[in-house]
Amino acid sequence: EFEQTNVISGLIGEGTGGFTEALKNRIVVPAEGSREWRVDVITHEFTHRVQFEVLYGGIGKSFRLLRSVFVPLWIMEGMAEYETTDVDARQTSMLIRDAVVHDRLYSIQEMDGFSHSSGGRDVVLMYKLAASVFKYIAEKYGREKVGLLLKEYQRPQVTLDVALRRSLGIGDEELNKKWTAWLK
Fold first, then answer.
1. Taking every pair of C-alpha atoms in the chain, what is the biggest distance, in angstroms?
2. What per-residue confidence (pLDDT) applies to 27?
3. Which residues, including other chains, have CB under 8 Å from residue 49's CB and lie 6 or more apart?
4. The whole model's pTM is what?
5. Distance between CA 54 and CA 58 in Å, rounded?
6. Which residue, among 149, 136, 139, 131, has the nearest Cα to 180 in the 3D structure?
């Protein structure tokens, strides 16, 4: 039934737990699942709401949304997943361990978008890997750097590499190497 919402059409897949609409500031979550699951989904979606406000908020929002630079999906979904309590922490640990052991880690660059991931099968893994990037950032550089990265990225004409250098002092390739080594 959730897939048949009239808030947006045709964009909700079977695995969608909720979504946040940037233009009208709406969060849509199904009224099902355990309390813990709903809290995680609401936290995830509220994080998107905050991200949209940082990236596109204020006067001229619709214009900025139309002209928006692509924000890598690992930033948007990884940060949102990082902020949750991860109801399925054991499954997350298993997925990441399996990816490390079988050399199936995606690089930060490969996680710009998730549609190419083994025909879409690894989307859950990519969400969890993206969240682990933020866990790494918080542990190694400080939790405040998570929000600072987003603030740096919202500046006009700032690339991911520049935003990372301004917030962490390293570029995307070095972050990828350090994060991968930390996972292993």
1. 48
2. 79
3. 20, 25, 27
4. 0.82
5. 9
6. 136
What letter would DSSP give residue 156?
Answer: T
One-letter identity of residue 105: L
Q: Which residues contact 177 (CB under 8 A, 6 or more apart)?
A: none
Please give the DSSP secondary-structure letter assigned to residue 31.
S
113-147 tens-digit pLDDT: 766 655 556 888 999 999 999 999 999 999 999 99
Q: What is the DSSP letter of 21?
A: E
Rounded to 10 degrees, what is the CA torsion of 29, 123, 34, 21? -10
Both structure tokens of 32: 């099902």
Higher pLDDT among residues 66 and 164, named by residue: 164
Q: Which two tokens stand for residue 106?
A: 């995606």
Q: What's the average model confidence in pLDDT over 78-92?
A: 90
